[in-house]
Design brief:
This protein is of the alpha/beta class. Helices cover 39% and strands 17% of the residues. It starts with a helix and ends in a 9-residue tail after the last helix. 44% of the residues are buried.
């Protein structure tokens, strides 16, 4: 951070400190924890919140599903009772977001890595299970794809059915229900699945070393011709739509697949089925870590915030036999969990991002 940025952050911190010390910052102003963010982390945070509300004298935290990006934006807007205490995220916070936080006085952010999740491409159990590859996914969903006639040129995506992309797939229309740009699941999907498949085209992969922005534009831009449908932040709604439309494919976190395995099935990706074991072992190629971010300035001011973090990071919740694993969370390895628990107990702010 340069001198000007440090000065700006210092002024914002001083203003925030005044707010914290003022009469507006009291238990009467807000006596519950406010949480925003990822729809994927939402069910896990909800379980912890309910357990916390039952087992302690504190009120049950209030949680809003806004998507990772939207939640972090709200979290970074400032310090005080009008701003959230916690942001759930299905991707790591970006350096640019940390900088935005700092401008508004949010400078000590506690990062809690809670576990792993797989991003599944699922369809109704009444339809054939799809055997996809990351390259198939890229070719089916990218706005521009390599010209099917050959050569190192891009054309607007001409593929209408899965069979057009891969002759081994069904001749059903490409209709994919997925998350909006504010979603961490969307961010992780384009990076892991779309870019992962894009790299399978050698001449596009070579662009990365010369022009990374151009490379990302090719690999991360999803088609806008109606084949990909933004279905909002409600993953349960996507599951319901798949039940009603066996030809559609939905994109959401593994936990929603596990909870609805009587109605939907996960496609294999690069020959690997999305299961608890394959994600935990790192074999499933479209998986990512999930995080909870805590505003240190609110610890000690918002009743129960420290205790809530302790409950979230406890062995009984995040451990291999914990109640979050029962809900589909892929737990951290024991050594990593111990490190997370130590940092959370000490309320240690995260290190600077590159």
């Amino acid at each position: 951070m340069n001198h000007s940025a440090r000065k700006t952050a210092g002024i914002a911190v001083a203003a925030a400190t005044t707010l914290l010390a003022g009469s507006a910052w009291g238990q009467a102003a807000r006596d519950f924890i406010s949480i925003v963010g990822s729809s994927t982390v939402y069910p896990f945070a909800t379980v912890v919140a309910e357990q916390f509300g039952r087992a302690t004298q504190f009120k049950t935290p209030k949680i809003e599903s806004t998507g990772s990006g939207g939640g972090i934006k709200l979290f970074c807007a400032g310090v005080g009772v009008q701003h959230p205490d916690v942001a759930n995220s299905s991707r790591r916070i970006k350096a640019s977001e940390v900088a935005d936080c700092a401008k508004n006085g949010v400078v000590d952010i506690i990062e809690v890595k809670i576990g792993f999740d797989g991003i599944v491409l699922a369809n109704a159990v009444s339809a054939p299970r799809l055997a996809l590859t990351r390259k198939t996914v890229f070719l089916a969903l990218a706005k521009q794809v390599p010209d099917p006639k050959g050569g190192e040129t891009l054309v607007s995506n001409p593929y209408k059915t899965w069979k057009d992309v891969d002759p081994s797939l069904p001749a059903t229309a490409i209709e994919v229900l997925g998350p909006p740009p504010t979603s961490g699941t969307r961010d992780a999907f384009v990076e892991l699945a779309m870019e992962g498949g894009c790299k399978k085209v050698p001449w596009i992969a070579a662009i990365k070393d010369k022009d990374e922005n151009k490379f990302k534009s090719i690999c991360h831009t999803i088609r806008e011709d109606g084949r990909f449908i933004e279905a909002g932040e409600n993953d349960n709604l996507i599951v319901q739509k798949l039940k009603a439309n066996p030809n559609a494919v939905g994109i959401f976190g593994y936990s929603f697949l596990e909870q609805n395995e009587d109605a939907v099935q996960g496609s294999t990706v690069d020959g690997v089925e999305p299961t608890f074991e394959s994600i935990a072992e790192g074999a499933y190629p479209v998986s990512r870590p999930m995080f909870v971010y805590v505003k240190k300035a609110h610890v000690g001011a918002i009743p129960g915030l420290r205790e809530f973090v302790q409950e979230f990071t406890s062995n009984r919740s995040m451990g291999g036999e914990g109640y979050l694993a029962e809900k589909g969370l892929i737990p951290l390895p024991a050594a990593e969990l111990a490190a997370v628990q130590k940092a959370a107990a000490a309320m240690t702010p995260m290190a600077a991002l590159e």
